[in-house]
Structure formats: structure tokens, C-alpha cells
Amino acid sequence: MQTRYATNPEQIPGFDTAALRDRYLVEGLFVDDGATAVYTHHDRVVLVGVKPVSGPVTLPPYPEIRSDYFFEHREAGIVNVGGSGRATIDGESFEMATGSCLYVGMGAASVEFESDAAAEPARLYIFSAPAHTRYPTTLVPAGGGIRRELGDPLTSNRRTLNQYIHENGVRSCQVVMGVTELHPGNMWNTLPAHTHDRRTECYLYFGLPDEARVVHILGEPTETRHLVVANEQAIIAPSWSVHSGVGTASYSFVWAMAGENQSFDDMDGFAISDMR
């Protein structure tokens, strides 16, 4: 498990590209037969990538979280961005097709992931936050939950937003999670750009061709920077940072938040004309 310490907006002007990538970009999440983790002190979120290839992969009790097992004091949302597979939680199996989302509640002691033998390996993206009570483990199929159609082809941001874990859907202590799919020919996500000073949000970009990239905008609205992001890389967006991007091809992304509340619409938008 890699540790990323919290940052504040006053540091942004002094960061070069390497410093920005070290603090906010998560690369190499999906390693064959591994469970790669990053712990950020922004809202104490943990990101994990699991890629079972030759057999099942068990989620370990990382020593950095000081727990006997991963979910002793935590909950998580999990989205499969790879081939079909399954998650086994305390002996109960959940089939996870591509794009499906699984909420795992606090107290799950045994967690194992496996890929279907005839398919490409599953790639399970885990977004975890501290929890204070137990909610039931719940599977949402790809495209399930609440669907919202947003944007306009004229502004290149027509997209379908799938809300999976949220205050009016699958219950959690503080995790909010979903998947946004850009329609073909559309490249901009999350317009207008916004902050929500009460939550940390992380993006995992996926479905992006190998040669394509997303230019992700971060920082305060009046002091923005950018990161060039490849397929299946994640961004940590502190509560004070905008998070928006434009791709060289259409793509999808997993968005997930944790913090003060679970209201999806609790955000402060900024017109592109006001950003610098």
C-alpha cells in the first residue's frame, strides 16, 4: 500500500508536472494476480485495483489501516472494468459482469476475487472509506441504479450517468459511487466543472483506447493545472479541487466520493469563462 499525504491549494503553484503526478495520479493499479492499494489522507480514502489472472486473489489486511481484516472499520464500492468475474464475500458469491457495481459493508471478514476462465481477466476497482455502521453487501448490475442523461452533443459532453451507491440507492455510511459513459463523439466530462468542499472525489478513467489520453483539469478554479491520463489510471481530487477533463476519444469513468455528506448535487459550479 502506497501512502499519499494531504495537500492544500497553496501548494499548487509550486508543483511541477512530476509533483502533480506524484500526489494526484494513481498509475499501475491493475497488476496480474495482485491487489495494489493507495491510501490518501484526503478523507482517508483507499483505492485498490485487483486483477485475478491465474487464480483467486484475496484482499489483504494492509498493515497501514491497522485492522485485522480490510473491512473491519471500512466499507467500499467496487466496479468491474475488465472481463467478467466474481467476488466472494464471507462465503457468498456475487457474479460481477463488466460494469457492475458491488457495495461491501463494514464487517466483511473474507473477501476474494476471481476471473471467469473463458474471459479476459476481471479488473476490480475498489473505493473504500471508513464506516461507522454496517449496511448489507449489495450488487447492482451494469446500467442499473438511477440513470441520468446529461450534456449536449453541441458542447461535446453528452453522457449517461449511472448512480449506484448514493442516498437514494444502495445505502452506505459515506461512499457515493457511479459510472459515467460518454456517448460516441463526445469528449468532455463534468461540465460545468465544480468543487464540493465537503467531499473528496476520485475518478478512474477506463474504456479509453491505448493510444488515447484524457487531459484532466485540477486545482482551484482560478489556479488550474492539468494531468495527462491514460486508460485505467485514477485521479485523487481533494475537496478544494475542480475535476473535469477532455479526451482524445470517448471513454467512461468511475466516480466515487466520501466525506461530509452524500448529496450528489452538493457542489459549487464554475463556468469555464471564470476559470483560469
UniProtKB/TrEMBL annotation:
Transmembrane segments: none annotated. It catalyses: 5-dehydro-4-deoxy-D-glucuronate = 3-deoxy-D-glycero-2,5-hexodiulosonate. The keyword Metal-binding applies. GO terms for molecular function: 4-deoxy-L-threo-5-hexosulose-uronate ketol-isomerase activity. Gene3D superfamilies: Jelly Rolls, pectin degrading enzyme 5-keto 4- deoxyuronate isomerase, domain 1. Zn(2+) binds at H194, H196, E201, H243. Its EC number is 5.3.1.17. It comes from the Bacteria. Its cofactor is Zn(2+). Pfam families: KduI. Keywords: Isomerase, Metal-binding, Zinc. Catalyzes the isomerization of 5-dehydro-4-deoxy-D-glucuronate to 3-deoxy-D-glycero-2,5-hexodiulosonate. PANTHER family: 4-DEOXY-L-THREO-5-HEXOSULOSE-URONATE KETOL-ISOMERASE. Belongs to the KduI family. This is 4-deoxy-L-threo-5-hexosulose-uronate ketol-isomerase. It comes from Conyzicola nivalis.
